[in-house]
Write a structure and sequence with these properties.
Strand 6 and strand 7 form a beta hairpin. This protein is about 40% helix and about 15% strand. The longest helix is centred in the first third of the chain and has 36 residues. Helix 5 packs across helix 7, helix 5 runs parallel beside helix 11 and helix 13 crosses helix 14. It contains 15 helices and 13 strands. The strands form two sheets. Strands 1-2-13-4-9-10-11 form a seven-stranded antiparallel beta sheet, covered by helices on one side. Strands 3-12-5-6-7-8 form a six-stranded antiparallel beta sheet, with no helix packed on it. The protein is α+β, with helices and mostly antiparallel strands.
Length: about 450
């Protein structure tokens, strides 16, 4: 019996063993994979370099085109620095005084004038002396003064307003306790605003500065208020159109907390409208229905009122609207519903109207056109009877559309209108909220 060496056994006889590397598929095709990787690397590296070059060139062009800052812009940067020293944990303002967030000059001037007036009202009866307000005009003839203002980009008359704001900040810093704790709700809202600004949803951090200003002012007030809610109410009062591009999570939750079930009153619906059995949706029918005539029914415009009115409190409802034509808002108890009289504020209606798919407007007298970009598909309506505000929002974007500010004295009824025959106008259930705008799970719950 001959002995076979191990080396011979591997290469002779029926039990021939193939080398291990030939059996493993990965090893067998490794040269192919290696070549593919080399090819991909050849494509990826130039793409990365090109991306970096484009980024550098864009940054260079931005720096070359950047205009020198005017006085009002420099003032806002300095104000942000001072507020950051006064208000604890307001590091969001660092984006402003480090020039990451530069506001347009017009926005800066409007902010300065508005907040100087607010501080003066708060410190009544202090008023800027008229001789101080017009001292520049007295030194020159009116032509010279106008030329001076035009050359300064409209900055010539900002001095008194800036002094009011800076005196206010100096007064706070001179106290024994010069810093203010804004509270957790404010800090959470600041984080929310910063997050949305970085994502590009906010054009600038003006809402954050306004919130910090209110928090510092509230710290001095003997009557404490919820600053986050006060911020929204104030914005909607001073700027009726597109006041807030993004409503922070905590404030939006406060609005939605007033949600309640709203249904259509079929006894008020125009005879051409088809109302569903649950009275939650309607659209125009193709045939005129025979219905009892009554004073509450709309017999001209294709509208219907909600079942039940409001004489107090906060109320919120959401509506899915069509793409061509709709009308939403409230009607006063005394408003006439017969005929084709314009459903404007003069007739007792506070409504928003979309016509021809692009013409969005508030039906004031005269009508107030709204930007075409604001046209929503899901509209939130918020009524605060005591504060005298009726506000409309894009519920999907959590953005403000328009606010009516008025002292309410009558019962108010929700009103709905549509001329679409294919798509229903739908009142959404009160307990169902649209998804949060946070990527993934909500960051603010």
């Amino acid at each position: 019996m001959s002995s076979v060496s191990p080396s011979q056994a591997k290469t002779s006889g029926p039990w021939v063993c193939k080398p291990r590397e030939q059996v493993v598929c990965g090893k067998e095709y490794s040269p192919v994979i290696s070549k593919m990787k080399d090819c991909l690397q050849f494509l990826v590296e130039p793409a990365k370099k090109l991306k970096n070059r484009l980024k550098e060139s864009r940054k260079r062009v931005t720096l070359e085109r950047k205009e020198p800052l005017v006085e009002s812009q420099l003032f806002i940067m300095e104000l942000a620095r001072e507020l950051n020293k006064i208000c604890q944990r307001s590091n969001i303002l660092g984006h402003i005084w480090t020039s990451e967030d530069i506001w347009p000059a017009g926005v800066c001037r409007d902010f300065i004038v508005e907040w100087a007036a607010a501080l003066e009202r708060r410190a009544q009866p202090r008023i800027i002396p008229s001789e101080q307000r017009h001292e520049k005009a007295e030194k020159k003839d009116w032509k010279g003064h106008l030329l001076c203002m035009l050359e300064a980009g409209g900055e010539g008359d900002m001095g008194p307003h800036k002094r009011v704001i800076m005196e206010w900040t100096r007064g706070i810093k001179s106290r024994p306790q010069p810093t203010v704790w804004p509270g957790e709700p404010v800090l959470m809202m600041l984080d929310d605003l910063e997050f949305q600004w970085k994502r590009g949803r906010l054009p600038n951090l003006l809402p954050a500065v306004e919130l910090v200003m209110l928090a510092v002012m509230d710290a001095d007030s003997p009557i404490k208020k919820d600053v986050t809610k006060q911020w929204l109410v104030r914005k909607q009062r001073s700027q009726k159109i597109d006041a807030v591009r993004y409503i922070p999570h905590s404030v939006w939750n406060w609005i939605c907390d007033a949600a309640e079930e709203v249904t259509l009153d079929s006894d008020t619906a125009n005879a051409d409208l088809l109302v569903s059995g649950d009275e939650k949706r309607m659209r125009c029918g193709l045939q005129h229905r025979q219905v009892p005539r009554c004073r509450q029914r709309f017999d001209g415009w294709w509208c219907a009122a909600g079942r039940g009115g409001y004489l107090s409190g906060r109320h919120y409802w959401e509506v899915e609207v069509g793409e061509r034509d709709w009308r939403l808002g409230v009607a006063k108890a005394s408003a006439v519903r017969q005929g084709f009289r314009s459903l404007t504020t003069d007739a007792g209606y506070l409504t928003l109207r979309l016509e021809r798919g692009t013409d969005l407007k508030a039906l004031t007298v005269p009508a107030t056109p709204l930007p075409r970009s604001l046209a929503p598909r899901k509209v939130g309506v918020h009524l605060d009877y005591e504060l005298g505000q009726l506000s409309f929002y894009d519920a999907e974007k959590r953005a403000h559309l328009y606010t009516y500010n008025e002292k309410f004295t009558e019962e108010l009824y929700p009103v709905f209108g549509t001329v679409e025959v294919v798509r229903d106008l739908v009142i959404r259930p009160a307990g169902v909220r649209l998804p949060c705008l946070c990527p993934g799970s909500c960051l603010w719950n």
